[in-house]
Amino acid sequence: MISIVIPVYNEEKNVAILHGKIVDVMRKLNEPYEVIFVEDGSTDETLKILKSLREIKIIILAMPLGQTAALDAGIHETRGDIIITMDGDLQNDPADIKLLLDKLSEGYDVVAGWRKNRQDSFMKNLASRAANIARKFLINDGIHDSGCSLKAFKRECFDDLDLYGEMHRFIPALLKVQGFKVAEVPVSHHSRKSGVTKYNWKRGVKGIVDMISVWFWKKYANRPLHLFGAGGLGIFFLGILSGAALVTARVFYAVPMSNKIWPLIAVFLVLMGIQLFIFGLLADIAVKNYYKTQGKMNYKIREIIEN
Known about the structure:
single chain, alpha/beta, 9 helices, elongated
């Protein structure tokens, strides 16, 4: 079975059209499928329209928590061997699902869509390009367009993956770290005809923070002490050397220190180094506990409707 997961928020003019296109595509593929819409607290008629459709599963979140939480909720309710994710604004083309499936059949675990010819505003394209440059520097997941929601995954990709924050952009990177094979294919991208984009500067800031988090998990998830401990030791010894230099200057060259800030800076560096090293030890313990326990998710499903 192929499961298609679409998070939606205030897309009343798009959901019925999108559902119809998905159903047409899947019937032509002649594969068993399910279409899952995750309703993320819309304030318009989106939910009412979804309830009027057939061949659909609707997951209604108790409160709006954003695209990442909605995707995670939908993915955890899928039954398919292959999971397709896409946006609900009609900018992704359901006809491209076949391209993803064909690439997946070549032995890949993840296939990401690449919007080679994006149909977004200049500012949105500019922000996306800046984010891609930062992502390649920090993560380098090998794909051009991690922000494209049109992706295909084998089910086992999500056996040990929970999504938080704005992590949906970095799913290929997270899976690549775990050893899954990632590929991409160029896909169509249409301009938004109805509704309002949900992307703003706040999401951009959250994305940067989550990008740094992914970088940390990629580089130091199993050894945070190497990052914080090494940094702490470096700062500690810098403080020791600074202190030794100040003592030498005072004892041998009679340089007055009573009116200087440098002794305080040396003490500050020593204390900061010790604290950072201790923080590394605590982070190491926390990460080990993370791998041993199952954390609670940041969303609550209020209702699931199957028509």
